[in-house]
Write a structure and sequence with these properties.
By secondary structure, the protein is of the alpha/beta class. 30% of the residues lie in helices and 26% in strands.
């Protein structure tokens, strides 16, 4: 028969599970929920299921935090609090039987770093950005700043961050960047976007 007998309301178990999971994870996102409701309200057609699965059901991603394995949780917490303004403790966890202590620090404006101290962990040497790429993993934390020279001076002069790459022009016209190390040798990049 014609399109009036479509099976647009029938979902496979996989689709149903994905829809349930996505709906739960996006419950706090009004715009996404509204888009889903709008799609559901459309008359059933042969293309409605595909359109719904390919658009409204797609999740939106954003970075919540970066995780850093550290040798000394207390030292790193203190330095990041002073250097980057991470003065809010969002979470702490201690697992003595595993020799693990963690803390998630935030600046209250979207920047979060999780620090994990684990007994027996070993450091990775990252003397510069190019050496860091010898291993296939995340290589550095990049922070956007409005004044590169001021930020670089503050971290190196006031917070004793070792300079790795002095402030200079980036690959993109108008962009400037620099690198420093934190107290345990982890790379931090500072990026000043091009003026608009």
């Amino acid at each position: 028969m014609p399109a009036t007998t479509t099976t647009s309301t029938v979902a496979t178990p996989t689709t149903a599970a994905a829809t349930t999971t996505d709906a739960a994870s996006m419950a706090a996102t009004p715009a996404t929920t509204a888009a889903t409701a709008s799609t559901s309200a459309k008359p059933a057609t042969a293309t409605t299921p595909a359109a719904t699965a390919g658009t409204a059901a797609e999740p939106a991603f954003g970075i919540h935090h970066i995780s850093l394995s550290v040798a000394d949780l207390d030292v790193q917490e203190s330095w990041y609090r002073a250097a980057l303004g991470l003065d809010q403790v969002e979470e702490r966890l201690e697992l003595p039987e595993a020799g693990v202590r963690t803390a998630i620090l935030s600046n209250g404006a979207g920047l979060r770093v999780e620090f994990t101290e684990r007994a027996g962990s070993t450091p990775i040497d990252t003397p510069d950005p190019f050496a860091a790429t010898a291993r296939q993993t995340f290589t550095h934390l990049a922070l956007q700043v409005t004044d590169l020279d001021a930020a670089f001076k503050r971290l190196t002069a006031e917070c004793a961050a070792p300079a790795v790459v002095e402030p200079g022009p980036g690959a993109t016209e108008g962009v400037r960047y620099a690198y420093v190390h934190d107290p345990e040798g982890n790379l931090i990049e500072l990026i000043q976007p091009a003026a608009r």
